[in-house]
DNA sequence: AATTAGAATGAAATCGTTAAAACAAATTTC
DNA sequence: GAAATTTGTTTTAACGATTTCATTCTAATT
C-alpha cells in the first residue's frame, strides 16, 4: 500500500506537504500541488480512512437502523430506503445497515463509530435507542414515524392527511358504510392512519360502528382473516380501508376465495402503493407513501446536521398521493 | 472518550497490559486481568475501532454489493439477503451496502476498506468488479450467479435443476405445449432457467417451437406483454413458464384483462416464490429460490475465507423447492 | 546591505491501539 | 547456589494520516 510518505519521497518533499496538497490546503504552491497530485495518481494512492478517522475523530460511516430487519420490515420498503439514501449520500461515506432489535450493547453505538444515524422507525419501542443516540450526541434523523419530541429532526409522510383524502374520495363516490383493517398495534403509523380515517368520517357526520374496525398487524395473513370477519357481519361495509397494501392483498384474496366481487360487492383501498398494487386484479386503489423521497430528504437533513450540529431540529411532512385505480366502486346514493 | 491509557492509569499498569488483558492474551495473570476488566466496565470503555483497524490492517467491515440498487433488484430479494447475512455475521463486523453500478473509482475498493466482500450478482457486467476484488486480494464470495471461474467461491441456487423438476411435473400433469417467458438477456439466471426448461422437454422428447419462447426482462410489464403475445398465437401453449414471479404476475394480469382463465385455459409456473406468490388468485405454482439460505451460507463461507484465505474455493449449489399451488391444471391426455 | 513580512515547507507531536523487544522477578535445573 | 528458564510486565516502536509550531526561502521595504 502506498502512503503519503511514499509520495513524499518521490516528490522530494515532506509528507506534511503531501497531506496538505492532497487536501486542498491553500498554503501549497500550485506547482508543488500539481506535481504531488500527479505522482499520487501515478502511484495509485488510496488514502487510508482508518488513519484519517483516527486523527480526525470521524468515522465516515453513517448508520441506517431499522426497527427490525427480521420481521415487520416489508420488502419493498427496505429497497426504497437504501435507494433514497444512496442517492443523497456522498461517495466517501459508507452506509451500514442494522436492526435495532439485534443490538446487544447500546454502548457500541458511539460518535466514534457513526458520524450520523438515520432511524427508519416503525415502533415506539425504538425510543430507547433514539434517546441513546441523542444523548451520545450523534447527529440523528428519525424517518417514517412521527415523534412528539421537537428536539429531534424528523421526516415523515403525512399519513393522516393521505388517508383523510382517500376516505373523502370514497365518500364522494357514494360510500357510507366504511370499515377499516388496522395496522399493528403500537405502531404510530397505525394510529395515524386510523385518525385520518376517523377524521374523514367525522367531517361527513358518518357514524362508525366498532364492528367495522378490525385489528390487523400489517401482514398479508391478517388482512385475509380480518376481511373474512368483516364480510361475515350482518350488515357488511361497502368499502374497506386497509392500513397497508399487504393487508389489502390478503383481503382481496379472501374475497376471491369466497366469491365476493371487487369492487362490485365490496370496495377496497390500500396504503403504501407497493410495486404489486398496480398489478393486482383489479388494480388496487391506494395511497402512495413516498418512502424513497422521505429517505432522501432525511439524508440531506442529516448531512446538514453533521456539518452544523446547531441547526434547529424540524419536522418535515412529505405529501402522499392518492392512486386511484379500480377497487373503489361508484355507488348510486 | 476513555482509552486504554486511562484504564492503565487507574489500574496502575501499562497500557499494553490493558490491551492484552482485554484481548484475552494468555500472558496476563488472571488476577490482573480481572481487575482490568472490572475497571474497563466501570469506566464504560469502548474500544476505538479506527485505531485498532489502523494497526491491525483490518477494517471490520464487510461489503455487500448488488449489481444495481436502483434497478432490477427485486424488493423481497434485498431483505432476504440482508436478513441472511446479518444472521451469520459476528456483531463487531458491520455490513455496508452498495450498488456496483454506482461505484465511481474501482480503486476505492481495497483490502484496507473491506475485510471481505459479498457480491449478490445478477449480471455478467459484474465481472469487472469481481475480478478487481479478486486481484485486490480481498476475500470474496459471489452469490446467486453461477461463475465459470473455479478460483472464486460461489454460492448459487440450482436454478436449472429446479426448473427441470417443475417442467417434469407439468409434463406429468399432461401438458405438451409448453412455452416460456425468458428473463433478461445477459443474465446468467435467464440462460440457466431456459436450460432447465429445454432439458426437461428434451428428456420427454417434446418439440419446442421458437414461437414459444418470448423475451421478457424480469419486469412485471414484460410478463404482461409477452403473455399477450403467446396467447395470440394460432396454437397457443397450454402452459407458460415464467422465469420469475414478477413476470408471472404480469402474465396473470394479462389473462385477467383478456378473460383467459387460469389454470382452466392456460397454466402458469413462476420462479422465486416471492411473498405475494401465495396470495395471487389463484395461488401461483412456483419454484422457491432460497435467497436467505444462499446469503447465510455465503456469509459463512466468507468468514471461513477471511480466517484462512488458503481455503480452496468451491461452488455450492443450494436446492430449490417446487411450490405446487393452483396455477397448473391437470390435463387429460 | 540589512530588515522584515509573508509564503511555502518541514519536524515533531498526536490520535488509540497492537506488537516486538527488553526487562525484572520468580521458579526450575544442574 | 549460580545459571537457565519461565512468567508477568513495561518500554518502545509502529500504523498512516493531520496539525501545531518552527523554520527556510523569497521578495519587498528601508
From TrEMBL, chains A, B:
<dbReference type="Pfam" id="PF13377">
    <property type="entry name" value="Peripla_BP_3"/>
</dbReference>
<dbReference type="InterPro" id="IPR000843">
    <property type="entry name" value="HTH_LacI"/>
</dbReference>
<dbReference type="InterPro" id="IPR028082">
    <property type="entry name" value="Peripla_BP_I"/>
</dbReference>
<dbReference type="Pfam" id="PF00356">
    <property type="entry name" value="LacI"/>
</dbReference>
<keyword id="KW-0804">Transcription</keyword>
<feature type="domain" description="HTH lacI-type">
    <location>
        <begin position="2"/>
        <end position="56"/>
    </location>
</feature>
<protein>
    <submittedName>
        <fullName>LacI family DNA-binding transcriptional regulator</fullName>
    </submittedName>
</protein>
<dbReference type="InterPro" id="IPR010982">
    <property type="entry name" value="Lambda_DNA-bd_dom_sf"/>
</dbReference>
<dbReference type="InterPro" id="IPR046335">
    <property type="entry name" value="LacI/GalR-like_sensor"/>
</dbReference>
<dbReference type="GO" id="GO:0003677">
    <property type="term" value="F:DNA binding"/>
</dbReference>
<keyword id="KW-0678">Repressor</keyword>
<keyword id="KW-0805">Transcription regulation</keyword>
<keyword id="KW-0238">DNA-binding</keyword>
Amino acid at each position: 500500500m502506498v502512503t503519503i510518505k511514499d509520495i513524499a519521497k518521490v516528490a522530494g518533499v515532506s509528507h506534511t506537504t503531501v497531506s496538505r496538497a492532497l487536501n486542498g490546503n491553500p498554503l501549497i504552491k500550485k506547482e508543488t500541488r500539481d506535481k504531488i497530485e500527479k505522482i499520487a495518481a501515478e502511484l495509485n494512492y488510496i488514502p487510508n480512512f482508518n488513519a484519517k478517522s483516527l486523527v480526525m475523530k470521524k468515522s465516515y460511516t453513517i448508520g441506517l437502523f431499522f426497527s427490525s430487519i427480521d420481521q415487520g420490515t416489508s420488502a419493498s420498503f427496505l429497497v426504497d430506503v437504501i435507494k433514497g439514501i444512496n442517492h443523497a449520500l456522498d461517495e466517501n461515506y459508507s452506509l451500514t445497515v442494522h436492526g435495532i432489535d439485534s443490538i446487544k450493547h447500546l454502548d457500541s453505538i458511539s460518535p466514534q463509530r457513526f458520524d450520523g444515524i438515520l432511524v427508519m422507525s416503525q415502533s415506539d419501542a425504538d425510543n430507547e435507542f433514539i434517546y441513546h443516540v441523542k444523548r451520545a450526541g450523534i447527529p440523528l434523523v428519525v424517518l417514517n414515524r412521527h415523534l412528539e419530541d421537537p428536539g429531534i429532526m424528523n421526516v415523515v409522510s403525512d399519513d393522516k392527511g393521505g388517508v383523510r383524502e382517500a376516505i373523502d374520495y370514497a365518500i364522494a363516490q357514494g360510500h357510507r358504510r366504511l370499515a377499516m383493517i388496522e395496522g399493528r398495534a403500537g405502531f404510530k403509523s397505525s394510529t395515524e392512519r386510523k385518525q385520518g380515517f376517523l377524521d374523514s368520517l367525522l367531517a361527513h357526520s358518518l357514524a362508525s360502528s366498532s364492528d367495522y374496525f378490525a385489528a390487523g398487524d400489517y401482514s398479508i395473513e391478517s388482512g385475509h382473516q380480518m376481511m373474512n370477519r368483516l364480510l361475515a357481519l350482518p350488515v357488511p361495509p361497502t368499502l374497506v380501508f386497509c392500513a397497508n397494501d399487504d393487508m389489502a392483498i390478503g383481503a382481496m384474496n379472501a374475497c376471491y376465495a369466497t366469491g365476493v366481487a371487487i369492487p362490485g360487492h365490496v370496495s377496497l383501498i390500500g396504503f403504501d402503493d407497493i410495486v404489486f398494487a398496480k398489478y393486482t386484479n383489479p388494480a388496487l386503489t391506494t395511497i402512495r407513501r413516498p418512502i424513497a423521497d422521505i429517505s432522501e430528504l432525511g439524508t440531506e437533513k442529516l448531512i446538514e446536521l453533521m456539518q452544523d450540529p446547531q441547526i434547529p431540529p424540524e419536522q418535515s411532512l412529505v405529501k402522499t398521493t392518492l392512486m386511484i385505480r379500480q377497487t373503489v366502486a361508484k355507488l348510486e346514493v
